[in-house]
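Support reply, case 0932

Customer input (verbatim):
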Amino acid sequence: MALLVIDLGSSSARTLLFDDNARLLPGAVVSRAHDFATDSQGGATTDAESLRGLVERCIDGILQHPAATKIRAVGMACFVGNWLGIGADGQACTPLITYADTRSHEQIPQLLEKLAGSARAYHQATGCRLHTAYLPAQYNWLCHRQPAAAARIQRISDFASYLYARWFGRGIPASLSVASWTGLLDGEHCRWHAGYARRLCGAGLLPKLPALADYDDAQSGLTDAYARRWQALRDAPFFLAVGDGAAANVGSGAVDARHIALTIGTTAALRAVTVAQPVPTGLWRYLVSADMPLLGGATSEGGNVYQWLWRDLLRETADLDARLAARPPAVHGLVVLPLLAGERAPGWQTDASGTIHGLRRSTNRLDLLQAHLEAVALRLSLIYAQLASPEARVLAGGGALNASKAWAQMLADAFDCPILLLAENEVTARGVALMMRQSLDGVALDAEPPQISRVAQPEPKRVAMMRAAREQQSELYRRLYG
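Our regenerated output:
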């Protein structure tokens, strides 16, 4: 029997089949690309119904695989945070608003005033900073800028719960993992933080928030229409969604404080399962599950920077990776803040944007590409410095990172530690499969460590050059943002 995983990321929807040992079955991946609708004001949204149709077509496709005749269970990882409003008719009455939407930056000063000096206490209680990536700022922005739309909201839903509600014909709880990305979850007690919900968003929000449950609160009983459409799933339990970052940690083998997961996909993140308190200033604390807190930091830059330089701006088709690897760090003379989609960790500046300093007539395409990839590595090294323990191993995965050996070396030099590159191509989906297997069969999450493809070792001379480059980057950041 097979395990079906729905992996909904920021740029693609995927369905995959794994065996009972959480191994990906041959040819068992169906993928469809999608993108957020962005605008010059900072909007980053998508249409929930269109995205639902995309996911459902991926399920239709994977059920054609020969191994899909018997599905034991279904699980999901979903990009977080995201939310949408549901109206009185049960339909979406707002677009799906995503973590990348920065229009609510104007709400941050007002929300800080509402906290009356307790911003640090809020951070420790919810694990989140006041920022445009989270529900309080976004909900306040909607109420102020689109009051008619806000007035139609009868309840709030994340996208994964929205999918399940349509498939099962009833209200579905949000998982604790997904809820921990909202900025309103009381992480210690695993419930909505009523005090901060009322203080930041008003008394009307709390009744609209969904019920909560851990990811293993499996749902079953598809509506007749979906049971006919997906006959192999008619009796399968559907586990609640987990945050894509949480699933990636599990799939990377980083399920304790001795391992740090580095994931570079569309965006990038460093995370470790730990109970460390308090939460460092530049980091967040989310949940994998009720008993697995996840400490780390995510950036809004990652593979999107690589894609922007390589495909959209430079329109480069040649393989430049070997040429990049042969160049000394910072030989381009540029200082870059790669904040093309704003900033999350570690500085949390709501008005940050991308910056290139030091352009000259001699600057070429290779200079620009190297400078931006190094800049992402340097930003991630700031998160690593707050997260690292002396003996922790960095396990790295993600499609963007696997595409460039030169980038992996930049990261090893920026972190000044070995980077263990994972041979697993689907760490997020693998994490979901491992979590389902633990719930179904009691198998420990670390029973089968991931395969390592190679190790990028730091080189002392390059480490010193990257350290100097980080100081230049930090100085530019201070001059611009304080």
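We compared this against your earlier run and they match. Two observations from our side: The CA atoms of residues 274 and 318 lie 42 Å apart. The chain has a mean pLDDT of 94. Please reopen the case if you see a mismatch on your end.
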